[in-house]
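Example 3.2
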Amino acid sequence: MRFSLAVRVLVAFFLFPAIVPLSAARAQSLSEGAIQAAVYVDRAVIAYEGKRYDEALKECQEALRLDPENVDALYYQGLIYTALDRPGDALAALGAARKLRLGDPDVAFQIGALHFGQKEYEKAEPFLNEVYRADPKRPNIGYYLGFIEVQKQNFREALSYFRANVPSDDTFAQLAGFYSSLTLARLGSPGQAKAEIDQALRLQPTSPLTTPAQRLGEILGKAAEQEKFFRGELRLGVFYDTNVPVDPDRSGDVTAQAIRAGQPRQKSEGEMVSLDLAYTWLRTVDWEGTISHRFVQYYNNRLTEFNSQSNTPTLSIVKRGLLPGAFGELPYTAGAQVDYDYNSLGNRSFV
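Structure, written as tokens:
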């Protein structure tokens, strides 16, 4: 909650130096009109919190008549206009406050949230990013920026914002959970997405999001059941090879002639078996670990000494994420893989 320049009307004149969020030098230079304006701002805050918006607006207008550069009066005037569904007037008041105090994160946040509410996401983003850089734990800032990244199809960036969001209440917590679930689904993690939507439903079982969330949960549940952690592929085939020993073509070369003479038979029909097995032992949005094995057997019916077999077990792990850069966050993929190859020829170890 933003603090006004005064706390209560009866003590405003006595406690003013202690409660004004300004420097001591500035406080000493305040005029009598500015001091009186602070009292009206305090009245406006009380009326605003009581949802007496017309009364609050009059108090702010009186404060600005006495002190046209009163940033707090302009700030609360913007909030009041927002509550009265007058976004144009709200932006004008908040814009005036920003000109007087450019680095004020409260003002920047309200301007960004106001543009967001009007679905003007491109206008909202720079204000919200400014606030996020200054205070990444500000309530709901992660939800706003995450939603904007979803609109831009930047799902990894969106998920990082949703995960870092600090909700102001259960409604915003549920919204962040709902869109986190959608983001996880788009990133290919229906199991995690289903867990996220179930948690969001538990926050407010009777909210307006309940029906669409339940439908999404049903879809994700089916997708999670179909998510394959084990997969296998078997291939069978027949072949006819006209050069099983891989002898060189006929030529005048003495070595080539000797090789061909030592292996009179070159042709053979045969069968082939290929089996691929893989198990994903780790799968999240950021990590994926897999262990697999590939087996290939070639059997030559007439030249069994050239039968070959290949076994390749593999262990791999991959990390995906985002790296901060001068032009924004850059996606990256890093991984490690260990392979072991064992090949036999003629039923004997070869390589």
